[in-house]
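Input structure tokens:
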């Protein structure tokens, strides 16, 4: 490991970076005028839920959480995950460390412990925030989040958070981070429930439903702030850079 990487992976540096990122995101949240759709979104769902997001939304998703909602988020065990976990802690979100497995369910690749932790969180009334797509395969829903819904009995609620002024990165996950002093949209999709006795064909249909609903809420959120989704499957991927 090189010197720069050793420095950035040190606990003190990661604590400082996590604190600064959280402080910046709080500034973005305070200085953007957000609209929520539907306006009565929280009146239509019963907590706790599994909040589903696409990779790339990890900077913004916490804006959808109400102050009174207890929340935990699945965060990878990588060095970058440690930094993200620290930032989430400063934002009032507890981190559950673990990883999904590409193309499989979350019980693979050491994710069994994380799955049990998420089930306990939901059982205790704590909302769980989780990316629906698998690392390095952007915007293709995996079975992990569907498995969690099936075992917990709690619905999946697709969520998208977008600001009119932002930076869109030209990365595999089409990551986006908001900028201050703009407009924002928070769109919650229709809850997707997964029966405990669902067989493989049913699980596949529900996986596709979550994927379609996540695509829909992202398209709608970008439309509400007068933009097009750079990661949409029907439009070419745009280069990173500031968007006004």
């Amino acid at each position: 490991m090189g010197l720069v990487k050793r420095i950035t992976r040190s606990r003190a540096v990661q604590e400082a970076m996590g604190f600064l990122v959280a402080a910046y995101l709080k500034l973005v949240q305070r200085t953007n005028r957000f609209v929520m759709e539907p306006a009565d979104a929280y009146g239509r769902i019963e907590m706790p839920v599994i909040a589903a997001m696409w990779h790339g939304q990890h900077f913004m998703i916490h804006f959808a959480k109400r102050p009174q909602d207890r929340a935990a988020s699945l965060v990878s065990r990588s060095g970058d995950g440690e930094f993200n976990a620290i930032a989430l802690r400063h934002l009032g979100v507890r981190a559950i460390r673990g990883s999904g497995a590409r193309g499989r369910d979350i019980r693979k690749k050491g994710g069994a412990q994380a799955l049990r932790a998420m089930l306990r969180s939901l059982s205790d009334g704590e909302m769980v925030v989780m990316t629906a797509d698998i690392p390095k395969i952007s915007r293709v829903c995996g079975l992990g989040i569907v498995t969690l819904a099936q075992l917990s009995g709690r619905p999946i609620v697709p969520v998208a958070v977008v600001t009119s002024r932002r930076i869109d990165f030209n990365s595999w996950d089409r990551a986006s981070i908001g900028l201050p002093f703009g407009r924002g949209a928070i769109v919650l999709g229709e809850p997707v429930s997964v029966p405990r006795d669902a067989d493989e064909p049913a699980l596949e249909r529900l996986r596709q439903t979550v994927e379609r609903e996540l695509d829909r809420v992202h398209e709608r959120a970008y439309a509400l702030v007068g933009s097009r989704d750079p990661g949409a499957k029907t439009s070419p991927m745009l280069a990173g850079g500031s968007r006004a």
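The first strand starts at residue 33 and ends at 37. The chain has a mean pLDDT of 88.
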